[in-house]
Structures are given as C-alpha cells and as structure tokens.
Amino acid sequence: MPGGRAALAAVAALAGGCAWDGPMSTLVARSDLARAILHVYGIITWVTAVIGVLVFVLLGVILVRFRARPGAPLPRQIRGHTLMELGWTIVPALVLLVIAIPTIQIIFRTQTAAAPRGALEVTVRAYQWWWEFRYPGLEVVTANELVLPAGRTVALRLEGPDVLHSFWVPQLGGKRDVVPGRLNRIVLTPEQPGDYWGQCAEFCGASHANMGLRVMVRPPAEFERWVAAQKAAPGEPSGAAAEGKAVFARSACVGCHTIQGVSAGVLGPNLTHFGSRTMVAAGMWPNTPENVAAWVKDPQRLKPGVKMPDLGLTEEQAKAVAAYLVSLK
Amino acid sequence: MMATHEAALRRHELAHVPEATGLWSWITTVDHKRIGILYGASALFFLFVGGLEALLIRTQLLRPNLSVVSAETYNALFTMHGTTMIFLAVMPLNAAFFNYMVPLMIGARDVAFPRLNALSYWIFLFGAIFLNVSWLVGAPPDIGWFGYANLTTRPFSPGPSVDFWMLSLQILGASSIIAGVNFIVTILNMRAPGMTLMRMPLFVWMTLVVQFLIVLAFPPITVGLIFLMFDRFFGAHFYDVAAGGDLHLWQHLFWIFGHPEVYILILPAFGIVSEVLPTFSRKPLFGAPVVIYSGVLIGFFGFGVWSHHMFAAGMGPVADAFFSIATMLIAIPTGVKIFNWLATMWGGTIRPSVAFHYAAGLVALFTIGGLSGVMHASPPVDLQQTDSYFVVAHMHYVLIGGSLFGLFGGLYYWWPKMTGRMLDERLGRLQFWILALAFNVTFFPQHFLGALGMPRRIYTYHAGAGWNLWNFVSSVGAYGIGLGALLFAVLAVRSLRSGPRAPADPWDGRTLEWRTSSPPPPHDFDEIPPVYSRDTFWREKYGDGQGRKPAPRPPAPGPHGIHLPAPSFWPIVIALGIAVAAAGALTSLAVVVIGAAVTVVGSFAFALEHHRNPAHAHQEGGLGVDHRKLAMWLFLGSECFLFGTLIATYMAYRGRSVVGPHPHEILNIPLTTASTFVLLMSSLLMVLALAAVQRGDHAQSRLWLAGTAFFGLGFLGFQAWEFVHFVHDGLTLQTNLFGSTFYTLTGFHGGHVALGVTWLLTLLVLDLRGRLGTQDAIKVEVAGLYWHFVDVVWIVIFTLVYLIP
Fold first, then answer.
1. Counting one residue from A and one from B, how many pairs have CB atoms under 8 Å apart?
2. pLDDT tens by residue, B297-317
C-alpha cells in the first residue's frame, strides 16, 4: 500500500530512522484488515502532517517578522476579515472530506455483520489475565496462542466471562473490546505465516500488563498437522515427567486445569498440549522447564493478582510438574 | 478615567475599611478574589501531587521489567494521576481564574451568589482531600480515571478503593454544578452597563460556555456514579451482566460527560490565549465574533461526539460512522480558532512576554494535539491507536500543550493583578523553555510508542517489544517537566516575597480588570466602569480605529451603593457535613447520619442567614430577572439531564430483566393515576399560594402553602404505600434490573418531592411567624418553579413507566 508505506516513511523520517517493525508495530500490516487500516492511516498522517507544517511555518514567520522593534508605532487595529475567515472554515471542511470518505468506506467494509462462508470460526474468551481460544468446528481448545492458517478468513467471536478486555494483535488489525454480555467480532485474513504479538488493550485489573497473546499464522498444511496433534491425546510421560504427572494429579492443579485424561477443571487454561506453546503465563516468559518450574512454584509473586494460588510445591515437585507440562506436546 | 467628585469621596471612605486578615477571615470569606486565590493555591498543590504521581509512573517505565512500584501501586498511580490532574488541578485552576477574573472583566463587584461560591470551593476542597485520604488508608482507586464497569463493581473490586473514587467524584461534581450555575447567572446578569454579550471579553465568553457544559454534562456521570454506588452498596444490578446489565451503559454515561469535560478543560485556556495574544500583539482579536461562535459550536458539538471514545467497544458500523463524522466536524471550529489567533498576531507588534510565550506555545502544541485528535476521529485508525500510547501522547498534547500552557499563560498574565507583584520575566522565559522542551521530549516519543503498539496502563513491558528507547527518552523528559514546575514554584515564592510592586496596568491591557488597582480593592471598582466595546479599556486609552476616544461617561452608580457581602461560615459547615457523610459511607451508618445532620442544619442556617436582610431583597440583574430565579432555571436545566439520564436508563433496560416480577405483573395503574392527580393538583395550589404571597394575603398564602405541601405529602404517602406493597410482592432494588431501575428512578423523583415539601413547609413556618412578606414573593416563586418542574417530570415518568406497556 503506497499510503501505508508513505505513513511509515513519514513517521520514520521524523524519528531519525528507528526500527518501526517491532513485534507490536501498527505500521506493519500482515492481514487484509491491517492493510485497509494502514491505508487510511497513511492518508490521515499525510493530511495532518501537511496542515501541521503549514501552521508551524506560519507561526514561525509571524514570531520573527512581527516582533516589536523599538519605537514601532501602534499596529493597525484590524478586527477581522470575513472572506478570509470563511476561507479557513470551508477549506478545512473540504480537507476533512478527504479523510472522511475512505474512513466511512473502510468502516463498512471491515465491520461485516456475519462471518463469510468458509471462514474459520474461533471463539476468543478473555479472562483475568489469559486468553482461551476455542475452535468449535474442530473441537480444539487452547490458550494464549492462537494458531491460524495463512490465507484463510477467520471470524473471531469475542466473549468475556469476567471484565472488559480488548483483543489486539496490531500487525493483524485494530483492537476490539471483549465485552461481557455482548458479542463482538473481528473478521480478518492473515496473509503471511509468522508469530504475531498481541496484548490486552483495555485495562482489566492488577495484571493487565501481563495479558499477552501470540497469533501463530502457519501454512495451511502445517495448520492441519497442528489441529491433528491437538485432537490427539497427549503421550504418556516417563521419568521426571511421570513423577510430575503424579504430583499434578494429586494437587489442586486439577481443580482448575484440564489435561485430557487426567483432569477436567475449567477455571484456568487447558493444558492438554501445554508443551506445544512457546510462552507461559499469557506471554510472560518462554516456555522452558526452568520458567515453568518457577511459575508453578511461585505464581502469586510472579504475576500480580493471578487467580492461581501458591500450591506449596517443593523445588523438586515444581521441577517434576514443569517437566511433565513441557512434555505435553 | 476622570473620577468624579462623588467617586473620589467614596474611594476616600472605602480606603478606611481595612480588609480583614487571619485564618478565620479566609475560612469565612465570600470575596470572589479570595476564593479565586484559594482555588488557585489548592490547584497548584494538587498539580504537584499529580506531577509526583506522573514521575513515579515514568520512573517505573524507564526501563523494561523494572519494579520501582508494584503492579497494584502502579495501577493506583495512573488512576490517581488522571483523576487528580483533571478534577483537582486543571478544573480548579480554571476556577481560580473564573473566580478572580470574571467579575473584574465584566465590571462587577462580586459573583451573583458569593456564599454559594464559597460553598463550591469548600465542597471541592473536602472532595479532593477525601479522594487523597485513600492513599493514607492504603486503598487508592486503581481502576483508571474513567473507571469502566464492571471492573469497578464489588465482585472485581472488593475493597473501599472504588468507593473513595466514586464518592469523591460525586462530591466534586456537586461543587462544579453549583459553581456553574453561579457563574452563568453572574455573567448573564451582572455585566456592567454597556457590556452586551458581544462586547464580553473572550475569556468571559469561554467561561460562559464552560459553565453550560458543566451544568449539563455533570448530571449524566452523577447518575452513572449513583448506579455504581447502588450496585456496590445496595446490591443493585445496573452493571451486573448476569442480571442483564449492559456494560456499554457506563461507557455512554461516562463519555456523555467525559467528552464535554475535555472542552471544560480546554476552553478556558482558549479564552486566556484570546486575551493574551491581542494584548501582547497590541491588536484586537481577529474575527472575535467568529472565535466566540466557534467556541459555542465546540461546546455544542461536544455533546454529540462522546462515542468516539468507544470505537473499539463494538457499537456497529452506523454508530461508528456517525460519531466519526461528528468528531471531524469539531475540527472545523477548532481550526478556525487557530487561524484567527495566527491572524491576530499577523501584523501586530509582538512583545514576547512569558505570558505570550505560553499563548504562542499553546497555538503550536495544541495544533499537534488537535491533529492527532483528527487521526482518532477515523474509527479504523483509532482501532490501532486507542488505548495505546498514541492516545496518551494525544491527550497530553491537548491537556498540557493546550490547557496547562494556557493556564500558565494566564498565571504569568494575571499574577501581577492577583498578587500585586511582578513575576521575574527573564527567569520566566527560561522556565517556559524548560517546560516546553521537556514536554515535547516526554510526549512526542509517546506517539512512536503508540505506533509501535505499546498499550497504555501497563506497569511493565517486554524488553523485546521495541519500546525501550522511547520509554527511556520519555522518562528523562518527564524529570525535565518536574524541573520546570519547580522553577515556577521558586519564581512564585520569590515574587510574593520580594517581587517588584505591580502597577494597575502592567501590560497595557485591553479589558476592565486592568482598570482597577493590583490587587483590586475588596469592592473591585470604586465606580462601575463604562463599557464601549470588547476592548473597552484600550479604547479609553487609545481611542477607536481612527483614534477617537469615547466621551467620558458619568460613572454608573451601583443601584444600591457598594454593598459587600458579609462573611459566612455556613459554606464550610455544609461542605464538612458532606465530607463526613461520605466518610461514613465507608465506615458506619451513624457517621453518615451525623454528616447528613450537619449538612441539613448548615443548609437551613445558610438559607435563612440573610432572610430578612434588606440588602438581599432585590437581586434583579441586567437581564431584568432576579438572580435566584435565573439560577433556578439553570438548575432545572441540569435536572432535566439528570432525570433524562435516569429515564433513558429505565427505557434502555426495559425488558432486560432475567427474572420477574415484571412491570405489568406488579404496577397498580389506577392507584398511581390517583396519586398523579393529587400531585398535579398541588401545582394548582402552588400557583394560588404564590399569588396570595404577592398580594400579601397571609390567610390565603398559609392555606395554599399548607395545601401544596399536604398534597405533596399525599403523593409521597402513595409512593411509600406502593414501595411497601412491591417489596411485599418480592420486588426490591436487588431483585432484577426492573427493580433496580424502577426504585432508582421513582425514588429519585420521590426524593425531589420530599425536598420540595420540606422547602414548602419552611416557607409555611416563616409565613406563620409573620416573616414572609410581599418582598419574599420571589422566594415562593423560585420554590414554585422547582415544584412545577418536579410535577412535570412525574408526568413523563408516569407516562413512560406506568402507561406505556
């Protein structure tokens, strides 16, 4: 999109050529929705930048040229000029049309009432402070990492079981609030495989900052393989992992978490294929045995306000549980 | 400026009236100038408190993964920073200038209701203290300054933190509405002879617009807060999703207030700039009528754009498109102002005082904030920017680059008038450049952070998100802002201690405040100044465009001589009662009762303090209307928005209850028809009562006043019976949404009737004791206006709640 790239270039020029392709950058568009937005973004950035420069130049000229000189006579007491004032009322109105028309077009193009035929339906449930993704057609439930096939339209249904949240993955499009009691939708088509960062964008309590997510866009074939793996039961653990499974099964973990064949809790994320995810605790740390062990041992300290209680696990037990969880590919 | 012999004599007399000093004189003051100074000092104090909170925020974000403060403390810091800066710093700083300057600029000796003015201040101060006590008891609000439901409800915020926030916001709102009514009456009714509306200085005009915004915009949020209070304290269901509540309700109520609030914060600064730029360019404001109309238009449109704060909330494409276009329209009058200011400076002889620096700084920085605002007006773009640091940058450009720069301009401009001392212009210029530079270093990079996807209100961030550099820069800039603010404090203290004495007219000013001494005497002007045009004082000095000076006019004598209002301590008593009641809401019912009792006793004492004082008998103003009557009409306008919000909520929630009983199962229409008839008949008796008081027919006035009150009591009896009956049938505030909305709406109306009955009975007692003469007819008339309004509201409620199935 020329508009979008131009916007990016304009902002980049202003900042002296910094990195604008950060993982959450709104200036990098990797879906049809994000591209449509960036198109208007570019137009508006240019229009407002031109007006801004105009005002600044005018102000600069005035401040230099009309500074009082010693002995200057009283200036002419001009009270106004109707034609000029009409001019700077009408011209901005016309300029606004340049912004308004594409804006309205994009609003109606991107906010379709129903999901298009053949779209992949995913229900997003936002909890304090993690994300659940349900694929109703595929009978897959996962958490914090949304896996999508590239090139296929996806219809996200946003549902909120507790407080307001907002689903935002900048490179795939604008945010949309998750409103308990209301159904909001996002329809978009991711275009390139990749790992996209997202984060809750509506303040939702103590750990609002710790409510990240990832969208893993994969080539269609890889997505199919992922679905098949998710539907399969996890493999039987061995060694330390087997010990971890025993700890898990007899501790309070089972009250909140589902692991297929082990437990059926629903208050926390489904952990059946925990080991297939890249991050732990809603995007807080990489999913390594060390991080998971630290997390299950001390959740209250590591994630303020988290609903997961301290379970009183010993160092060894925590390591065993971590080994087990990471083994759940 | 020739003073007549008579005026000179009077000045001689007045010079011998020493101004009271000491703490008690400040506590009981009703002088608009002293109240202005109290507002200003409090606002500057809270500006530093809010600034300290901001510095802690920026320190936490200096680097990724810092833990200078905990997550909970951080969340409290940004909540309190926003609430403090908006309600305790910028609004009262505006109020300081309204108070000090508006009477001077319109050539008046005080505001219309000096004691109400004191009441506004003390309520504000106690509300501000109450909010900040939350820090001391370890329960600061931590829900963001717009407190989105349902995070604010008891299940998600169990402690008292939200209670502090919602109670103090209601207290502060009451203060603002009282002040709003007061200033509208003052401006409309107390202008010096010759000062037509179009001759009013721009600052007065913007003040007038702001007061209308306050009077009309605060009721919706007050209702929203009352709903929240009922949910939290009494188990109602307004924001309870499981009971059918709609979380968009709070967002709508908040932003119907919240967007006009943006203009409440910025328009006074626009007014100041419109005074400062002409003064220091030595030219009149270019196209002043257009600047006035554009300010009025901004205020008017300000009520029609609130949902642009909700583009991410999912209102659907039609609403998004509507609010997008409406928002873009606001850019037009705003742009007009910018261009008119530029044209004002064009061709002028610019004397770059510090005040001018700030005014020109506003033109530049507000332009940036305004243009990023245009970007948010486009919903698709807004979906990438809202709730990110881009919006944080935008609002700080508007509120610091706009409001605060305007207010600093006002401080430098009016400081000599208010204190009688000059500020250091040379160091002042340094102070401006430190603040301007540090401000841009802090907030311009936040646009980049927003573009890079950094959400607002996060206490920590990933090192790998690409936000490290700009957060570091922004935090460094914030310390610079702190330095600039401190330097101002130093300059202020030095000026007060040892600054050079200020002459009456240090800047060669254009408006009336420069025509009296610095600081002005307690009575402001020895003689009410004549008014020839908008820059009336300039014209007296320099003449019109052709240099023709106006013929000296004989001073217009005040209709009743110089009457200075007597000090009163009842305002602080009432305010204290309110604060005690609020504290009781968090502790025990007994304390609530004590606070309410103090408030009631204080209110009666306040109302009757000058009941028979002849100086208070006639309060007719320039519009030919009594101040009190005008104030009542304005208050009723505010009440329309209050009841409108209550009724709209009832209608929106109709049929959403998930359990019974439902309206048609329980409402007793024949009975309510009878009670409605009784209430309407009371209006008839009220008319008779007023006529009797005007005639001085005490036998009849007593009869009809008693009759009106009796019929009102009859209506309340019906309502009590109805409520008891409903509770018996299983409908309470807690039962369902119907119960919550029905009891709140009809209960509020009943409360109004009860207040009216109390008022009528008070008048009746006065009448029985022979203390209600024909000169008091105005008091009965004002009570009657209120009474008729309450009756009319009931017709609407009766129709919508009872008759329409």
1. 286
2. 999 999 999 999 999 999 999
Q: What is the DSSP letter of B191?
A: P
Handedness of CA B716, B721, B725, B730 (dihedral sign): positive
Reported as half-sphere exposure (CB side, CA atoms, 13 A), residue B744 has a value of: 34
Q: Which long-range contacts (CB under 8 A, 24 or more apart) does B610-613 make?
A: B610/B566, B611/B766, B611/B771, B611/B776, B612/B771
Q: Distance between CA B528 and CA B109 in Å, rounded?
A: 8
Which amino acid, residue B172? L
Which residue of chain A comes nearest to B538, CA vs CA?
A77
- Sheet containing A140-143: which strands, arranged edge to edge? A140-143, A130-135, A120-127, A154-159, A184-188
Query: Is residue B563 very low, low, confident or very high in pLDDT (cuts 50, 70, 90)?
Result: confident
Q: Verify whether the Cβ–Cβ distance A177 to B314 is below 8 Å.
A: yes
CA distance B697 to B682: 19
Q: Which residues, in sequence order, are CB contacts of A54 under 8 Å at separation 6+?
A: none
The reply to whether B145 belongs to the active site is yes
Which of these is catalytic: B115, B252, B456, B539? B456
Rounded to a whole number, what is the distance in Å from the CA of A58 to chain B's nearest CA? 8
CB < 8 Å to A77, chain B: 283-284, 544-545
A181 CB neighbours in chain B (<8 A) are 241, 244-247
Q: For B465, which of A24, A111, A166 is closest by C-beta distance?
A: A24
Exposure pattern of B140-160 as b/e (b: 16+ CB <10 Å)? bbbbbbbbbbbbbbbebbeeb
Does the annotation count B110 as an active-site position?
yes
Q: Which of B10, B58, B81, B232 is catalytic?
A: B81
The whole-angstrom separation of Cα B116 and Cα B8 is: 32
User: Per the CB < 8 Å rule, is B328 touching A99?
Assistant: yes
3-state helix vs strand vs coil in chain B, percent to 5: 70, 0, 25
- Residues A131-151: pLDDT tens digits? 999 999 999 999 999 999 999
Q: How far is residue B406's CA from residue B411's CA, in Å, rounded to a whole number?
A: 9
Alpha helices, DSSP H, located in B190-239: 202-234
Whether B202 has its CB under 8 Å from any CB of chain A: the answer is no
User: A283 to chain B nearest CA, in Å?
Assistant: 9
Which chain B residues are closer than 8 Å to A18 by Cβ?
Answer: 448, 469
The mean pLDDT value of chain B amounts to: 94
> Distance between CA A236 and CA A224 in Å, rounded?
23
Residue B334 bears catalytic tag? yes
Residue B283 touches chain A, beta carbons under 8 Å:
yes
Find, among B173, B339, B306, B152, the residue nearest to B231 by Cα.
Answer: B152
Taking the C-alpha atoms of residue B343 and residue B277, their distance in angstroms, rounded to an integer, is 10
Single-letter residue type at A327: S
> Residue A163: left (phi > 0), alpha (psi -120 to 50), or beta?
beta
Q: How far is CA B483 from CA B400, B405, B486, B680, in A?
A: 15, 16, 5, 63
Residues 6+ apart with CB under 8 A from A110: A33, A36, A37, A173, A187, B380
Inspect the interface and report whether the beta carbons of B247 and A305 lie closer than 8 Å. Answer: no
| B626 has a pLDDT exceeding 80 | yes
* Closest chain A CA to residue B382: A174
- Helix locations, A170-286, DSSP H: 220-231, 240-250, 253-256
* B590-609: average pLDDT: 97
* Residues of B whose CB is below 8 A from A59: 342, 360, 363-364
Catalytic residue among B153, B161, B274, B353: B274
| Amino acid letter, B220 | P
Q: What is the mean pLDDT of residues B442-453?
A: 97
**Whole-angstrom distance between the N-terminal and C-terminal Cα of chain A?**
39
Distance CA B61, CA B58 (A): 5
Number of H helices, E strands in chain A: 9, 14
